[in-house]
Design brief:
Residues 157-179 are annotated as: Disordered. The chain is 20% helix and 27% strand. By secondary structure, it is of the alpha+beta class.
Length: 194
């Protein structure tokens, strides 16, 4: 399976895909049909699937200042609510996940060192077909967590409350660098960042 074939299958399944997703190393940002954001990263010996509650996904659109030479410009972004379909997006647009912390609401990790004896950067060299299989396994492992969020909460009088949706107006934001590193997890595990 090619990367494009995998993306086509996800689109058919109702996923809203980020144009900045990449095949090597595999990195996928998307929004599921139920509103959950997903971020799959294949780096080193780990494949990580971050899940973000509905309302945390936004389109991050680059802002260009015509007065500044691109090489000298700070990358500025504008957050916009995700549309129902990708449609026509400016070059450089990507899906980002907002919230008080950059951490996902839930994360599942495939540890290739434990599971397959990986020693260096094998996750970054995964084929799209292998990444798709691990993605399916990680997603299936997270279903109990997703079900927990869907289950009615008696204290709330019925439905579990998702995170508040971002304001419909645009909010400027700047990219500030890489997210903090997480400690390595043994084996195949899921974790709660909170």
């Amino acid at each position: 399976m090619t990367f494009e074939a995998w993306l086509d299958r996800l689109r058919t399944d109702g996923y809203l895909l980020c144009p900045a997703s990449s095949a090597v190393p595999v990195e996928l940002r998307a929004v599921r049909p139920d509103g959950w954001g997903v971020h799959l990263r294949c780096r080193g010996v780990h494949v990580r699937l971050g899940l973000y509650r509905p309302g945390r996904s936004v389109w991050q659109v680059p802002l260009w200042d015509r007065e500044v030479v691109p090489e000298d410009a700070l990358e500025l972004w504008e957050h916009q609510p995700p549309p129902s379909a990708a449609g026509l997006l400016p070059v450089g647009t990507r899906i980002a996940f907002t919230g008080a912390a950059d951490a996902p609401d839930h994360q599942a990790v495939f540890d290739g060192a434990t599971e397959r004896g990986w020693r260096g950067h094998e996750a970054g060299l995964l084929s799209p077909a292998d990444a798709a299989k691990i993605f399916g396994t990680l997603l299936a492992a997270t279903e109990p967590e997703l079900a927990r969020w869907r289950r009615p909460a008696p204290a709330l009088g019925g439905a579990a409350a998702p995170a508040a949706a971002p304001a419909t107006g645009t909010v400027p934001a700047a990219r500030t660098g890489a997210a903090p590193r997480r400690p390595a997890l043994a084996g195949f595990a899921t974790e709660h960042p909170h």
